[in-house]
């Protein structure tokens, strides 16, 4: 090997040990998955802010009800869905498994469950809209049930991918924990 300022060892240019400078795959996976989960959390925050804005406009009567309808019942418990995202973000700096597990469980409870309830709550109104063409609630001229079903579909995908990547991240963290225990 070469010293910092001195000559190199004879017969080497110093690049013969680069294969040992690779980062372990579970560490690479961890960084990649954290990045993906952060993107999904940011998308969730955008959806959450849009629903919060709709709720505020509806309750404070800033616009007439024919422009922005009052919120559906499922939207109120969905407002708690910001908590799992914050727990997920808190788990990243020190790879805190407990926070990530709590985030995954509470995502199911505060995010996915209200979305399922919302799909069931709005189903009769959607059925009436598509069978008879009658809508009674509107959001800027669009049928509120159509807009909210679109929100439910997008949010379900965001939370589904968030849970999937969180599970993969959890597996990655367990792999690194197991390797540390072996040493």
Automatic annotation (TrEMBL):
Q: Which residues cross the membrane?
A: 40-62, 99-118, 138-158
Q: What is the organism of origin for this protein?
A: Crotophaga sulcirostris
Q: Choose one Gene Ontology CC annotation of this protein and give it.
A: endoplasmic reticulum membrane
Membrane topology term reads: Multi-pass membrane protein
Which key words are in the record? Answer: Endoplasmic reticulum, Membrane, Transmembrane, Transmembrane helix
Instruction: Tell me the protein family, please.
Output: Belongs to the jagunal family.
InterPro entries associated with the record: Jagunal
Task: Give a yes or no for keyword Thylakoid in this entry.
Answer: no
User: Which biological processes are named by the entry's GO terms?
Assistant: endoplasmic reticulum organization; granulocyte colony-stimulating factor signaling pathway; vesicle-mediated transport
Q: What name is this protein filed under?
A: Protein jagunal homolog 1
Location(s) in or outside the cell: Endoplasmic reticulum membrane
């Amino acid at each position: 090997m070469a010293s910092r300022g001195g000559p190199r060892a004879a017969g080497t240019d110093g690049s013969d040990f680069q294969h040992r400078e690779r980062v372990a795959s579970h560490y690479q996976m961890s960084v990649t998955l954290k990045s993906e989960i952060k993107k999904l959390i940011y998308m969730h925050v955008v959806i959450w802010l849009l629903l919060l804005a709709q709720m505020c406009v509806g309750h404070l009567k800033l616009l007439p009800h024919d422009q922005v309808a009052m919120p559906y019942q499922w939207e109120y418990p969905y407002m708690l869905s910001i908590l799992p995202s914050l727990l997920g973000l808190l788990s990243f700096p020190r790879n805190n498994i407990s926070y990530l597990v709590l985030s995954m469980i509470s995502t199911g409870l505060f995010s996915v469950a209200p979305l399922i309830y919302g799909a069931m709550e709005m189903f009769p109104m959607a059925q009436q809209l598509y069978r008879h063409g009658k809508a009674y609630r509107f959001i800027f001229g669009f049928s509120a049930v159509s807009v909210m079903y679109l929100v439910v579909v997008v949010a379900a995908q965001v939370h589904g991918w968030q849970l999937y990547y969180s599970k993969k991240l959890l597996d990655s963290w367990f792999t690194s924990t197991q390797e540390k225990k072996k040493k």
